Amino acid sequence: MSAVDARQILEKYYEYANAGDWDRWCDLFADDQVMDEQLAGHIEGLEVLRSMMKGMGTMYQVFRNEPAHFIVDGEKAAAVSHLSAVSASGEAIEAEVMNFFRIVDGKIAYMANYHDTVPFQVLSQD
Question: Is 8 a residue whose pLDDT tops 60?
Fold first, then answer.
């Protein structure tokens, strides 16, 4: 996979997330994807991910994750972004985020995210 193809996948990842288009966002992942998500934990399989993402529309009033930097090296990629969101109860969330990706055959096979979890504590109050 070329760096251009991987970058396009990353661009779609953020485009679909910011549009709240979680079905198309999930389509970017491989059927046997593995994700290590700081809040949701370890997620294996695309169908598990799809099921989990159905709740995103009710968890947040607003969700924006704006990428600042992409780094692509073969099938490995990273993105630095800033997340601005509003919880279902109206609490603001601001966080710096780092995502690591492994992209195989045009699909995200592995993803891990890293961020300060303190701003997301308001979600437990919803």
Answer: yes
